[in-house]
Design a protein that fits this description.
The chain is mostly helical and 98 residues long. The protein contains 5 helices and 2 strands. A two-stranded antiparallel sheet has the order 1-2. Helix 1 crosses helix 2.
Length: 98
């Protein structure tokens, strides 16, 4: 998930970390502003009875617009995969362009 400088600042404060500490621990090397784990899933996405976000109140803008992403709307297979993670997506037949 791409993050902005403002996202880094907000998430770091939420986690009680410095921005530099947050970048070192969570942002991909080479300056690429991505927060993701080894499997390319967001490190803040928690599994359990229901998948949830551990930084929900300060989540990046891209996360706030989930699942209304162009790359999902235009790709039925991506929608099917997303449905497995997001209980709010009820049907792959939905028109997500609204």
């Amino acid at each position: 998930m791409r993050v902005t400088d403002a996202d880094v600042r907000n998430i770091a404060v939420h986690l009680g970390m410095s921005e530099d500490g947050f970048r070192t621990r969570y942002v991909a090397g080479g300056g690429d502003p991505r927060v993701e784990g080894i499997t390319h899933r967001c490190v803040f996405l928690k599994d359990g009875g229901q998948t949830s976000c551990s930084i929900y109140t300060v989540r990046p803008e891209k996360c706030r617009t989930w699942p209304f992403w162009e790359e999902l709307r235009d790709n039925p297979e991506a929608v099917r995969k997303a449905m497995k993670m997001c209980p709010g997506i009820e049907s792959s037949d939905q028109d997500c362009s609204a």
